[in-house]
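Folds vary. Our protein:
___
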Amino acid sequence: MLANGFFRIKLHVYTPAYAVANFRTHLTVAAGVGAAATSYGLYAGWWTLVHAPSLVLLTTLGGIMPDIDADKSHSVRLIFTVLAVVAAFIALSIGRGYLSTMGVLCLALGLYIAIRDGVSVGFRMTTRHRASWHSLLATAGVTVATSVISYRFFAQPARAAWLDGGAMALGMVVHLLLDECFAIDLEGARLKRSFGTALKLFDYRRPIATVLMAGAAIALVPWLPPWPAAFGTATRALQAALGGSQPGA
């Protein structure tokens, strides 16, 4: 107690040793980038309004995809729920030509439960956070897989399928960049130990996982949508943007 009759209160402020980009940050930033990029593409006439929502959603999903290797996080639950829904939808689309209605429904439900509650547990036990999935190799693999699924199972045109893959890639790169930005301590003018663990070509410390991931991506290459047509469209759009031509010309 002070002489004036007031009590002295000592205020303790807890400052964490390091800050990281959490689930909400990754989700919000990826959604914002996806919305901005999609809006510009609409203005430039690169895609239609019908395709725009899926591009925003895929960019947002890509923004949390690298955290699929986290032991416990909102990202893991959301990602595997989305994957389970996609697998169930594919089962419904393909299985109806071979199975009865009840059989297709049981197959879809079984796949949903197996992926959401089974595969996710196995994945969590065999992966390490900030390892193989935090890399440009993983980004390339997810891009290829997304394009294949969009083209082969959702019957999207080749150009739309490549755009879907590109949206996932954009979201994942945003995630990796955010992780690296949060690894810079501006106040202490130093780099944290986590710097360089996100934005890397591949996981140098785990060659087996790297080889498996690269092999899976290469195995999907024959299933990719035709590349020349999509590449030609993208090249012309890029040339038009760099040349300062009017959008949609």
In short: Residues 34 and 56 are 5 Å apart (CA to CA). Residues 101-126 form the longest helix (26 residues). The chain has a mean pLDDT of 80.
